[in-house]
User: Fold this.
Amino acid sequence: MSPYAARRARLAAGMAPGAVAVLATAPEALRNGDSEYPYRHDSYFYYLSGFTEPESVLVLVAAKGDAPARSILFCREKNVERETWDGFRHGPAAAREAFGFDEAYPIAELDARMARLLADVPALYYANAHSAAFDAQVAGWIKTVRAQSRSGVVAPARIEHLLPLLDEMRLLKDASEQALMAKSADIAGAAHLRAMRAAKPGMFEYEIEAELLYAFRKSGAQFPAYTPIVASGANACILHYNANNAQTKDGDLVLIDAGCEFDSYASDITRTFPVNGRFSAPQKTLYELVLRAQEAALAAIVPGRPYSDFHDAAVRVLAEGMLELGLLDKARFGSVENVLAERAHTQFYMHGTGHWLGLDVHDAGAYRDLSLADKPSRPLLAGMALTVEPGIYVRPAPGVPEQFWNIGIRVEDDVIVGVGDNGGARVLTGAAPKTVAEIEALMGA
Assistant:
């Protein structure tokens, strides 16, 4: 059984007997004129189907009594003329065979068939309030079923939100997903290495970005996973900077936050390095503080520990460093506990230390245990994938030592929980140099 078929079976088994789930892929989108953005399927749809063509809908019917579960695909018909213009399309018969569906029909038949599939079923699962157009289409199906009430036909009594069920499934990466994520991480790590080697004072940020994009595509990645950040000097203190149009200067640090998408799975790496190949003393001091924070965070990623623990571990190390280096006034705060209680560290570190990673860069899944009243941070489980990305960003401000002004540093790696040494985190992104010695040796070569 393919991993997609196994996921469909697992989802159907968790639905009410005889219930129906329906999930559409993403629509195509115009960029300008009659030119479309490069098409990217919906992640939830792909997770269950492996099917990448637009204008597609997946329907699952849960088992009930002697009737087994069924998976049904609606997709574009085979059309040789359109294939001349737009490229290959499977058509229902070939898609059913290639992707292991029980049934497949032309997308033009969706409305008529859904009105029949929803008759006398106890519940409908779909991504409600996810797309206004699809909400309206679902409402039309239910209205059609209700119109048959005099004949004894009953519409679904319950509408269930489908995505929370899929979010929980997507949180745990199976072996096929872990392999794809490792490949994506390898490609992205090699791209960062290439960018470091190419970087020289006077280059524009977009020239360094071009090295990344070349390496991604050259190695088979289909897309960048997100718009790359190539931020030199003070630009590195802007968390989501992506203009990438400044000229680097001798003495600048360059912060690159860039990952790729390989067979739909994302990588997400940040490295910070001196464009001239040598860290200044203040840069090295802050950089090694961030590295220590990341080491503490990685050590806290253990199955059973709360998700929040690795962020808390990183923040504590950073807060200690901020006090020791004079970024925060030791006479005023006195202790790390006071810094944390007043959240004073957020002047220099204002974001979380990671996020889920997978089909989406910020992947699906709740960060808290929503089944409990106080909604505590959920425990980590083997197979979860996440980023670990502490940083420090020092903007000019009164009382802040000038030697640290306009230095922005972040170090980010991708990890899978519970598959590393001693059951800890397996770091996927080790191909990208990270220590001061490694970076300076690479750039001085």
